[in-house]
Design brief:
Helices cover about 65% and strands about 0% of the residues. With about 350 residues, the protein is mainly alpha-helical. The chain has a domain of about 220 residues. The radius of gyration is 20 Å and the shape is globular. One of its GO terms (molecular function) is acyltransferase activity, transferring groups other than amino-acyl groups.
């Protein structure tokens, strides 16, 4: 059965990601830190899968989760390799196998890289899946140190000039969020008193915002340019949002849309950057301006319309990956709300 609160958070996160990448509003990264949220929801689902896995090593749970990620990714990978080969500049080497299993960033061409800049998330997500049995064991043995250590490593990476990006930086930046998902699954967060939680969140969030606004990046006050501020602010945000999770939630008339987004979250995430790039290239070719409020609105409408078409054309691959009956329109039969559904697969931001 589905947890409607989790579904709502994931749907808002996906819409926020697409909107941010389309319009580039830095304030969105502060108002709703979607990436940290998606890693946290992924950690919660992974903990649930491991607890139900039936084998001590968690191999079955790892296999199920990886299958749900890589099968839709193969469709994107086939498109990416063909497109970049036609554009020219793609190096044909053994690293092309990373478009089959992206344990590192797959190779891209200079022109094609902008179409697929979102694939870092898939790489990070797969590593969290693979390492989750060990991470969950460590978390349950020593929850506070296990969450704090990645923060320390992230600060060390930043201070030594290695914290601006890459696989290692991404892992230590989002590992605390993934393990907050463990805490959400175990009910640990709900047992924390508000008298302890709220002051801690105010301190962490305040420090994060102070770092951001005292050291603006190339895009202004954008959390993506300030990893330490992002980690602190996202953690505070997640603690509040997950601690406040209701036992049950009715979405009313919004439920079909929220459920559809959840059923196709991975497809939306994988393809939205390519859609945005295509819309911008088409606008340049047609001599249409996408600047200003009206241009931005036009761009946003076109992007969401084309993403919807991609979802209708390719979203059924997610059903195959989850071993469900393929559906053109992702609206399955109703199920009672309340518990977490292992069928839904979270993604990015």
């Amino acid at each position: 059965m589905r947890n409607r609160y989790v579904d709502l958070l994931r749907a808002v996160a996906i819409v926020r990601v697409v909107t941010y990448h389309t319009l580039g509003f830095a304030w969105l990264t502060v108002a709703f830190p979607a990436m940290g949220l998606m890693f946290a929801l992924g950690g919660s689902l992974m903990a649930a899968s491991l607890d139900r896995g039936g084998d001590g090593l968690g191999l079955k749970a790892i296999g199920r989760r990886m299958r749900r990620i890589v099968v839709p990714f193969w469709v994107l990978g086939a498109f990416a390799v063909v497109l970049m080969s036609l554009m020219g500049g793609l190096e044909h080497s053994w690293r092309l196998v990373l478009w089959f299993l992206p344990l590192d960033d797959p190779p891209t061409s200079e022109k094609g890289g902008v179409w697929f800049s979102q694939i870092w998330y898939v790489r990070s997500y797969l590593w969290f899946i693979i390492l989750s049995p060990l991470m969950l064991w460590l978390f349950r043995k020593a929850p506070v140190p296990t969450v704090l250590v990645p923060f320390g490593v992230l600060v060390a990476l930043w201070e030594t000039g290695h914290g601006t990006g890459g696989m290692v930086r991404d892992f230590f930046m989002y590992a605390p969020m993934w393990m907050l998902g463990f805490a959400h699954h175990d009910g640990t967060l709900q047992r924390i008193s508000r008298k302890v939680l709220w002051p801690a969140c105010l301190v962490m969030g305040g420090i994060g915002l102070a770092i951001l606004y005292s050291h603006p990046g190339p895009r202004g006050y954008d959390m993506n340019d300030a990893p330490i501020a992002d980690a602190l602010w996202s953690t505070a945000f997640l603690l509040v949002m997950l601690h406040a999770a209701p036992a049950a939630l009715s979405l009313g008339a919004a439920e079909p849309a929220v459920e559809a987004i959840n059923r196709r979250a991975l497809t939306i995430y994988l393809w939205h950057e390519a859609v945005i790039t295509a819309v911008r290239l088409a606008a340049v070719a047609a001599g249409v301006s996408l600047l200003g409020p009206y241009g931005g609105l036009l761009q946003l409408v076109l992007v969401f319309a084309l993403v919807t078409l991609v979802v209708l054309a390719l979203g059924w691959v997610e059903d195959l990956a989850a071993r469900r009956r393929p559906r053109l329109v992702p609206l399955p039969s109703r199920a009672p709300a309340g518990r977490l559904d292992d069928r839904a697969q979270p993604v990015p931001v």
